[in-house]
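A quick aside before the break. I want you to see a complete sequence-to-structure record at least once, exactly as it would be stored in a machine-readable document. Don't worry about memorizing anything.
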Amino acid sequence: MATTSVIKHEGLALDWAAGHGPVTGALSATTGAYAVATVGTLAHMPPTWALAIGTVGAIGHTATGLRQKLAARTIGARAASWLLGSGWTTWALATNPLSWTSLGSLAVIGVGMGAAARSVGLYEEARELEAIAAAERHVARELSAERRAVAAEWVDRIQRVCGITVRVLAVEMWPTGTGFTIDAELPAGGTTYDRIAKDNARLSADARLPHGCTAAASPGIDQGRVLIDVTTVNVLAEDITFPTDYSPLSIHTGLPWGVRTDGTPVNVYLREQCALASGPTGSGKTNWVHTVLAVFSLTTDLLSWVIDLNAGSAGLPWVRPAMEGGTGEVVRPGIDWLASTPQEAHRMLDAAIAVAHRRKVAYQQLMADANTDLLPVSADIPQIMLVVDEGAEILASNDKAMKALAAKILEVIRISRAMGLRTVLTALGATGSVVGNLMIRREAKIRVALTGGEKEGMDLAKLFPGTRGLRVDQAPYKGAGFLGSPESPPALFKAWRIKPHQIRDIVHATSERHPYLDAISAKAAGPDYARRWDQSRIAWITNHHHTEPDIAGPAPAPAGGTPAGGGLNLSAHRTTAPTAPDEDALAEQFRREIDAQFATTPEPGQQPDTELPQEKPAREGLNLSAHRGDDGSGPDWLPAAMTALHAAGPDGMKPAAIADAVSRGRESVRKALKAAAERGELVYRDRGPHSVYVHPDHA
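That is the input. The structure line, written in tokens, reads:
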């Protein structure tokens, strides 16, 4: 490896390892020859030595030039330079190198060397450029020949299958090597691209394309041209892992929802559009929902609110990493709100409607300053994407409770386009009952159909009206289907595959990226939004611990008569058979429970104690025990409150949160909690407006 020696003198850097140009090369050769002639004269060196050295140098450079395939003039110029330099040195040694004749002739030789070097340098550069151009022309000729063959083949095929003659203007090979696009001109007479699009399947069969590959026609640059995308490699069969590039995204620049058959990502633009996705069981719809939430997590100006009445399964993987702990850092959930029950869904939708109404008024000046009628969505004022799993079924349901939810979902869709609240609804099938709502058809212009090869309930003509040539059997693989938007005509696509470990990685990687709901919207959303992660609201997520069954025998029932655990009795799978209970012991236990509950029935033959006053039997009617005075044991809901406090841990709970947990009035709950604290059953921590009650175990 060459070492560069740089000597600096007052800012001037001399690089002694740099290559020579025409001027410096000639100067170096002439000064070298003059130095050899001068020193050789003083040392009485034989003149023939210089000629021998020059001859060897000329032979060596000639061999090197031949090996490098240099031009003949370049090799000749280099050999001549060596011979001229050595010839002058030989003559100078034989005469006098210090004479004006010697110096003048050396100067002439140097100028000639420089001119020759410049000339051959330009010639070699031109030869190199010409060689590159020739190689490119050769590749272009080969590619052009291939394209001409493809064009001729498809002109004949379209004539044979569709009965029309087109003129191919261009054939573009995809960089991924999975197919090509034909740009063709339609014949005169008003022929449209539909004439070819309706025969997509027949064209694919005629071309003997592999399963999962299609020849799909779409509109060209004008109405007299057509684009035919021909896929030659099936990219739908294999799983495509969700990209590991977690770079920030924005809702303004498009969000990728999968890849097309040519391997390029397909982007959707959700600033003003809603989305509707359908997919039967086993089509990969749940996985696709997770990929959508993953893309939403990568954005810096978007918040995800998820409604999934199927136990919240669509959002749970995005919440649990934030609740695991043990990492020593604060991790925010991958979604901003999760509703798994109709009650929580009502809270969420009410908050969304309130936010939309409030934004319309509060941000008028901001929109006026930006000269737009759309709310300028940013990290400071994020867009809210409401993802409703199987939301289309909610809209089509005849159930009274579901109709109430459906009305609020439609209200969000109707009023909130400009204010940055949009929806993504999923459905089990693309049927008339699902897409029959006018609001959905008008607003959800981004349509997704995950077929998985399922034909029942997949009416693609209803999901993509006006589009011909789409068939379910073109995408028979899980995670494959069709996607269409105003920016991209309906066509085949493949959803990414994402697994729980990658979801956890994304939650941790994007925790600090999620925006916060702007103060105006958060205030409009109210306490339901502010306390969405309260322990009482997410207890269904955290209370998932199961106790091992008692293999020695059934657990005794509690006083209320409900078996412990409230689950299935799997005694048939136990290895140790439970022993038969003693009948006398059971009878005695039954009598004790009766006496403890009623304490009024004497044993047979035993007279009641006449000295004690008989209690008046309770009369049938309303139980107004809630209005009775405190007897020292607290109300009947206090055990439930104690359980909630114990689950809350050392942070405790506010009285209002406890009231919500036990479904009681706040004033009565405050009085009862105060009495319990005075009895020592609870610990009260006075923090002003943030005062809480704590379970004694955590005090």
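Two observations worth writing down. The two ends are 72 Å apart (CA to CA). Confidence is low (pLDDT under 50) at residues 1-16, 545-582, 597-631. We'll return to this after the break.
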